[in-house]
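User: Here's a protein and a ligand (glyoxylic acid). What would the complex look like?
Assistant: Let me lay out the input and then the predicted complex.
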Amino acid sequence: MARVLVTRRLTAGGTDPLRDAGHEIVATDDDIPLSAEELATQAAACDGIVCLLTDRIDADVLRAGHNGRLRVVGNAAVGYDNIDVATAHALGIAVCNTPGVLDATTADLTFLLILAATRGSTEAEDDLRHGRWNGWGFTTHLAHDVHGATLGLVGYGRIARAVAQRAAGFDMEVLHTSRTDTGLPGYVADLGELLTRADIVSLHVPLTESTRHLIDAAALALMKPTAVLINTARGPVVDENALVDALHAGTIHGAGLDVFEGEPALNPRLLDAPRVTLLPHIGSATIATRTRMARLACQGVCDVLADRTPPNLV
Ligand code: GLV
């Protein structure tokens, strides 16, 4: 029997794989992120950690674990920029994540933002809620069409492809760009060309040193003044200050964001920016999907602890 730290509250049944394998689960009932010190202390005393993207599993935590008994970290998220994977690998600590189980749910949420940002529903609802609606107006709340628009997907992994499937139902032309030529219809080698041609740009790249601020002032300047930017990937892929400037200047029409540069802290300028829809990182937040993610992360930890190679090894 191994000892596994579960850093935050998971959905009901999420830790079943750990229980079924007979492991001891170290968990708290509250849902407050552990401090760096608490994580390091626990890492040294556990064989496995199941963590969330809000937990920074840095070199200090991993070294503390390595000096103890830590063998595996299972991230209940598909993105793993919160984990120092290079150090984990150097120390022989396995890392796993949750690919595949959240694609459709995150694509649904991406479409919610596409629709909201393109049709301006957030500002329209805000007018209604704040007594600024005086009745149906022929020329008020005018926005842009989603159907028939050109969608530019930056990154073409599983989630982007699930978004492309949904776009087909809206008769959209879908372009995509990615590091390697997909050889598929709609592939555009040059990000700049995609930004120039798309009415809606949706980001689906992991956060790495090469994608940090991929969408900066220069990239925004390439977009159409009628275009919207959607980010359900990771906040730092977009330079938020440059985005706010672009929204005020009318360089682009609008934006829909589910992720933020300094989350959970919000750039106050974003809250005051025009034509933005902001959501608190809920891309995968359905009961079914979060339960699948929890189980997959726990199963990966169980596999490593049983000397099996999990399919979701990073
Ligand atoms: C959510 O953002 C995830 O990476 O799973």
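Summary: The first strand starts at residue 3 and ends at 6.
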